[in-house]
Design brief:
The longest helix has 11 residues. Strand 1 and strand 2 form a beta hairpin. The chain is 16% helix and 34% strand. Among the domains are: 57 residues, SH3 type barrels; 78 residues, OB fold (Dihydrolipoamide Acetyltransferase, E2P) (Beta Barrel). This is Tudor domain-containing protein 5. InterPro entries: SNase_OB-fold_sf, Tudor, Tudor_domain_containing.
């Protein structure tokens, strides 16, 4: 990609270990690196600029697979989650297959209960966080302070009108794509505000 296209909000793709992934440039780190958001997985990663490529138009229009989520009925003891709470949450996840029970889907955020059913007794995350002294069970869904700032999905993924699929939202920037024509023309597209 030309340097002029390497900017926050740019949709493109990146090659990592011989696989291609859709990404959105989240921020430019240095002359060599950028931080990208994976709209189909929901994570951030620092990659080399040289790994970035334009994405064909047909792949730009596909709905994002990542959906912003929040644990239902639980809030941090303070305004933000403590390191202890984060570590306990990661420990509970532990690369296991979990059961997710949807409580509600409001303002593009899926609020769900997570449960580990791999042992004799089911372990609900909101109860484990409460019992571990890291959270308060509140009986309602209140995204914690900084949820949008800490969650890139909230910046780049919005629900569709029927809230069944999350869609990629193009920031107010022009998108460029690699053309398949021999003369390498570039095409650009800009969504109107009422389409978002």
């Amino acid at each position: 990609m030309p340097e002029s296209s390497v900017r926050p909000g740019q949709l493109c793709c990146v090659t990592v270990s011989k696989w291609w992934y859709r990404v959105i440039i989240h921020r430019v780190i240095s002359d060599q690196e950028v931080e990208v958001f994976y709209p189909d997985y929901g994570n951030l990663e620092i990659v080399r600029k040289s790994w970035l490529r334009f994405l064909k138009w047909c792949y730009l229009k596909l709905p994002a697979q990542a959906i912003p989520c929040s644990l239902a009925w639980v809030k941090p003891l303070e305004g933000t989650w403590s390191n202890a709470a984060t570590l306990l949450f990661k420990k509970l996840c532990g690369s296991k297959l979990l059961v997710g029970i949807v409580d509600e889907y409001v303002d593009g955020v899926l609020h769900l209960f997570l449960c580990d059913t791999s042992t004799k007794e089911d372990v609900y995350f909101h109860c484990a966080l409460r019992d571990g002294g890291c959270a308060e069970v509140c009986g309602e869904n209140i995204p914690s302070q900084g949820f949008k700032e800490l969650n890139p999905s909230a910046l780049y993924v919005q629900p569709s009108g029927n809230q069944e699929n999350a869609e990629l939202v193009e920031p107010d920037l022009h998108l460029h794509q690699e053309s398949i024509n021999a003369d390498s023309e570039t095409a650009s597209s800009k969504l109107e505000g009422d389409e978002l």
